[in-house]
Here is the input.
Amino acid sequence: MCPERTISHCKAVLDGCTVIPCRRPLNITKLSDEFGQYEILLTCECGHTRKCFPQTLARIAGWEVQLDDLVKRLRCSKCGERKCRPTILHLTTPRKYTTH
Ligand SMILES: [Zn+2]
Here is the structure.
């Protein structure tokens, strides 16, 4: 393994790409924020996590609902408590450069 070789390879790939997406943090208050283009990671106090899409939640509660209010109503599928906290995730995962 030669890490330097890997880095220079990645750099070459990046240089060829003119648009590097700016990964700003998402600030979601309502489900409709960011046009629903995000994913929600729900973390329960018991440690159980699950991912869901705003589209799924909007079908239940509507797009104009406050995310915090909605999350308070969500029940953990493992322990049954309503103690989930939301983390907003970007829809697109960063491109990974695999080494051969
Ligand atoms: Zn739980």
Remarks:
- The chain has a mean pLDDT of 82.
- The radius of gyration is 18 Å.
- The first strand starts at residue 38 and ends at 43.
